[in-house]
Amino acid sequence: STGKSNATEVKGRQFVVSRSFASGFSTRLMAKDLRTAGDVAQHLKLNMPMLKQAIGYWTAADGKLGAGADHTEIFRYAEMLAEDE
Q1: Residues in Cβ contact with 67 at an 8 Å cutoff, skipping those fewer than 6 apart
Q2: Could you tell me the residue range of the domain that residue 80 belongs to?
Q3: What gap in Å lies between CA 31 and CA 6, rounded to an integer?
Q4: Where are the alpha helices (DSSP H) in 1-85?
Q5: Number of domains comprising the chain
Q6: Is residue 68 part of a domain?
Q7: Residue 13 — very low, low, confident or very high, per pLDDT cuts 50/70/90?
């Protein structure tokens, strides 16, 4: 495996490195999709601790970054958390 993916080869360069953060998919939708996956996991009685953490992380990021924030801004959120330490 090369470790290459669309996220690192396209989105990373175009939206994160450039800091344009404009891929067109919001943090709010990412958080919603993760919550939906969490609901499915709960319905199936699956214990998915990493999914629970991801839901919390993305929900918190959405709250901090505000309505309309692009999902690539998750990197800005990580920077904010690092600055708070």
Answers
A1: 28
A2: 24-84
A3: 20
A4: 6, 27-43, 49-65, 74-84
A5: 1
A6: yes
A7: confident
pTM equals 0.85
The whole-number pLDDT of residue 25 equals 94
Residue 41 lies in a domain: yes
Q: What is the percentage of the chain residues whose pLDDT exceeds 90?
A: 76
Mean pLDDT for 63-75 is: 95
d(CA 29, CA 19): 20
- The answer to whether residue 7 is domain-embedded is no
Residue with tokens 């996991």: 41
Q: What percent of the chain has pLDDT over 70?
A: 99
Q: How far is CA 4 from the centre of its chain?
A: 19
Two structure tokens written together for 3:
């470790």
